[in-house]
Task: inverse folding
């Protein structure tokens, strides 16, 4: 095994920042031989890489044209303080457009989202393929204000727009062999520079794959998102359609999906395949189960404040959604199935 795991004590300090965690995540990839030393050094010293962490100026992130959506407002979660839109669309993880936080917004603005095809297939009676217009017209859209907790220990509150994955899956009529759901991001190296440049794309294997157990996929919280802040998604957030699973670490919330497949076996997912000891298949947010190289007990909430704003908060089990989801895991040892 190529992955070197330093002793937990070496890094478990209370002032560890998610920026250093993010660099460690890249370091893992580097230790596996994918990144040149220059890439890592570049990420530490380059000014642009750290823009946004050291200033409080909202980036003018997006020139991509989004369209206003019609939706029912979320009345249940209005007490959550939303992360400002400019931060939601400028601080991203979308390795297909670069592994640094600012790169997805910079390198995705010409991404073509129309035409688009999303196929839903596999173990079901009525497989279907949706076109771009279907994504926003097939179901009544709802706003869902959710916390998003990245495995790197930063978090946001995002007003997503979308529909329940359960509603979509019911349309295709899953059969009794459908035990898991596999999701796949577009593979298009010409449009997604990270897919053809290992340094830019963090050296992970593409297409990006994620998966859920069928009951997780059918849980009412599981959202297919087509928008945020009242408009269609910009590319850096996963246009034209992405998954949002709010009780799991952000890497489960796969972007720019072209295929959803009902399958019999647990899918081989991107981060789990890369480092199973660090990124579990379940990836339920769990403050009691640390990542081997950093604590998951707290998180930096991205707010309107700058890097030094007092915004470190305790991480909640299942990211605060335990009431709706804990029952699905009641017979599982969550330290084993992390
Ligand atoms: N295809 C794809 N989906 C992805 C990622 C990615 O690199 N590629 N990053 C994941 C991670 S690690 C996080 S935290 C969220 C970030 O979503 P946001 O940029 O909309 O906040 O997207 C997830 N979905
Ligand atoms: Mo993440």
Result:
């Amino acid at each position: 095994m190529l992955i070197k795991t330093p002793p937990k004590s070496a890094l478990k300090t209370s002032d560890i920042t998610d920026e250093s965690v993010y660099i460690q995540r890249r370091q893992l990839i580097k230790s596996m031989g994918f990144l040149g030393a220059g890439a890592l050094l570049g990420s530490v010293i380059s000014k642009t890489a750290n823009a946004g962490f050291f200033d409080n100026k909202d980036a003018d992130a997006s020139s991509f044209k989004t369209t206003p959506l019609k939706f029912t407002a979320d009345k249940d979660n209005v007490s959550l303080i939303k992360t400002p839109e400019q931060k939601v669309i400028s601080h991203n993880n979308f390795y297909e457009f670069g592994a640094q936080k600012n790169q997805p917004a910079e390198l995705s603005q010409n991404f073509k989202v129309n035409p688009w095809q999303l196929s839903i297939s596999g173990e079901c009676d009525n497989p279907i393929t949706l076109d771009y217009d279907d994504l926003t017209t097939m179901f009544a859209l709802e706003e869902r204000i959710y916390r998003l907790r990245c495995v790197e220990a930063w978090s946001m509150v995002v007003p997503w727009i979308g529909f329940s994955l359960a509603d979509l899956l019911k349309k295709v009529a899953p059969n009794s062999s459908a035990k898991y759901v596999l999701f796949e991001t577009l593979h298009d190296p010409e449009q997604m520079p990270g897919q053809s440049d290992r340094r830019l794309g963090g050296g992970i294997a593409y297409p990006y794959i994620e998966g859920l157990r069928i009951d997780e996929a059918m849980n009412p919280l599981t959202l297919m998102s087509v928008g945020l802040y009242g408009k269609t998604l910009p590319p850096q957030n996963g246009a034209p359609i992405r998954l949002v699973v709010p009780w799991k670490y952000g890497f489960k919330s796969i972007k720019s999906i072209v295929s959803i497949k009902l399958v019999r076996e647990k899918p081989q997912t991107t981060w789990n395949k890369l480092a199973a000891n660090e990124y579990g298949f379940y990836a339920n947010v769990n403050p009691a189960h640390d990542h081997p190289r950093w604590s998951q007990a707290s998180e930096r909430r991205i707010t309107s404040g700058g890097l030094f704003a007092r915004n470190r908060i305790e991480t909640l089990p299942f990211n605060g959604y335990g009431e709706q989801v804990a029952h699905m895991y009641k017979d599982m040892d969550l330290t084993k199935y992390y």
In short: The mean pLDDT is 88.
